[in-house]
Amino acid sequence: MPEWRGVSRTTARTYCVNVYQAEKKKLKKLAAKVNKISLTTDCWKSKNQKMEYMVITGHWIDQNWQLQKRVLNFVHIPPPRRGLEIADVIWCCLEDWDIQSKIHTIFVDNASANDSAIYHLKTYAQRKEKLLCVGRLFHVRCCAHILNLIAQDGISEIKSIVEVIRDSVEYVRRSDARAFVIF
Question: Which domain of life is it from (predicted)?
């Protein structure tokens, strides 16, 4: 029998919350020293729970010119996930970390809800005159998402050709005589 005693759920929760609060305090001090921060955000639905989540990650260059990134928020967003709700969650996160005036750009995928969210975020930030270059650099579409869309479109264009080639190869492989004639 191992000499290990389990801890209660309350004890584990308290410990996790305390560690989180201590790390958040350290990160807030670090964020206070940063001049500009770029954000990435992504939403997805869990397969098992059927719940929708959003993660907000901050990216910046430190004093040693090293890229730093930290998860700033991970939150459940109940459906329907519309632009205004996404913008409100992001803005609350920025206020919580006190970085609303430090945002350089936000990278999002091409979802229409994200376009709406960026519109609302720009409105919030412009009210407080917090945008660099009057917001022209604020919204950046995710290049990886765009490349994925391009690749998927290209694959769909050649799908029927690939199927014909596969069927032809399979036809030849089924018979030694046909393979001998071709090769």
Answer: Eukaryota
